[in-house]
Amino acid sequence: MSRTTFLNVDDTKAGMEDLDKEKINKLIQDASKNSKFFKQQQRREEDNRRRIEVKLSKIKSFTPFQIEQAEKS
């Protein structure tokens, strides 16, 4: 399973700076992995990754002339 970004401990709160963030995040992941929310968020993250890959691929296909023209407009 890939690492999710939507369920992580917030260690910026007061008194949380010395906690084992990795261990807590693993516990959160293990406790949540079969929930409807978790599965929906995983689908959303995967959809976002795919959209980003498509856009990056498109950007890489632009010629220097196309980039120059886009910057002017």
Explain what this protein looks like in three dimensions.
Helix content is 63%, strand content 0%. 0% of the residues are buried. The longest helix has 25 residues, at 36-60. By secondary structure, it is mainly α. The protein has one domain (21-72).
Helical fraction equals: 55-70%
Strand content: under 5%
What is the CA-based Rg, rounded?
A: 19 Å
Shape: elongated
Order of helices and strands: HHH
What's the end-to-end separation, in Å? 43 Å
Mean pLDDT: 86
Number of DSSP helical runs = 3
Which structural class do the helices and strands define?
Answer: mainly alpha
Biggest sheet record:
none
Low-confidence stretches: none
Number of domains: 1
Number of DSSP strands?
0
GO molecular function: DNA-directed DNA polymerase activity
GO biological process, one term: error-prone translesion synthesis
InterPro entries: DNA_polymerase-Y
List keywords for this structure.
73 residues, mainly alpha
How does the SSE layout of this entry go?
Blueprint lengths: L20 H12 L3 H25 L3 H9 L1
Quick summary of this structure?
This protein has 73 residues and is an all-alpha fold. 63% of the residues lie in helices and 0% in strands.
